[in-house]
Amino acid sequence: MNHRVAALRERMSQAGLDAMLIAKPENRRYLSGFTGTSANLILTEDQALLFTDFRYLEQASSQCTGWTIVESGSSFVETAGDALAKQSVRSLGFESFDLSFASVESFRTWEHMVEGLRLVPTAKFVESLRMVKDVDEIECIKKAAFIADDTFAYILTVLRPGMTEKDVALELEYQMRLRGASGSSFTTIVASGRRSALPHGVASNKVLESGDFVTMDFGAVYEGYVSDVTRTVCLGQPSTEQRELYNIVLEAQERALDAAAPHMLASELDAAARNFIDAKGYKDAFGHGLGHGIGLEIHEDPRIRLGGEDMLLPGMTITIEPGIYVPQFGGVRIEDDVLLTEQRASVLTSAPKNLICL
Ligand code: ZN
Ligand code: ZN
Prior knowledge:
The chain is built from 11 helices and 19 strands. It is α+β, with helices and mostly antiparallel strands. The protein has 2 domains: about 1-130, Creatine Amidinohydrolase, Chain A, domain 1 (3-Layer(aba) Sandwich); about 135-345, Creatine Amidinohydrolase (Alpha-Beta Complex). The strands form 6 sheets. It has a 6-stranded mixed β-sheet with strand order 4-3-2-1-5-6, sandwiched between helices. A 3-stranded antiparallel β-sheet has the order 7-10-11. Strand 10 and strand 11 form a beta hairpin. Helix 8 packs across helix 9 and helix 10 (about 240-260) packs antiparallel against helix 11 (about 265-280). The termini are far apart. One zinc ion (ZN) binds next to loops.
């Protein structure tokens, strides 16, 4: 059985759990390799069961080495209940952050079907394992980062006043797909002019104009793993204020990249950029955390933010994305993806960061 499953079993035994139900798609994929849309896993000390319906039986058999595939379909509660009874499971962990109330209610049936069984809410057991990436995962994230970089190089050749933000978003998404992405890792953000002051300005019908800052935040999915890149460019010649704002964000980002190292607290890394931005007089204009983990999900632990208590470790892949947002004026954000290694931070994205004027 793979090392991921072994690590979860270790975690379960520390928590006194006989079994664990895994339903969250990313956790399911991480443990079993299953990429279909419908399945549940039950892991015990010596069994690894994957329940799915007839549509996915063949796929599951080929993807999920080491897992016993059980056909269940709509009778999952009943079929799994029989398996839990056979194993005399007493304490069954479930993902309390992700299961709906209705699902948990239906799983309560097992407390009647299996003598002595009780459901135990667990928090982020698999997510905490997923924070540190293995070699295969890092390769996928690197490829996703490369696709985003290459797409950015392309967009610079077509970006011009007269396009709408939606045109730009569509082009980014299409070009990432052409370069091998299976999709976008989140809804592409294109925010121009005054709208660039919106940190999460989803592309609108606004037409790009000369003098606009254009912030593009986008990412590719490759083999399930994501990249996440932001660049702000200027259409035409930037004003002194625009140049000043850009340079502060750039220096804040570079300070954080230099500071990033394993065995520091997430909050310390956040401070490396935040203290600089505060000192430049933009204390209230950087209203989000410095970054977040990336992997099978776009926002994973660790969260790099004010007060963030996660310890940064080698093998973690995180974003570093300071921004300054000035209402009625505009904003700048610069975001790279970073792999923490034993010695330092290695930057996975390489799109240029000098202020590009088109
Ligand atoms: Zn982003
Ligand atoms: Zn991000």
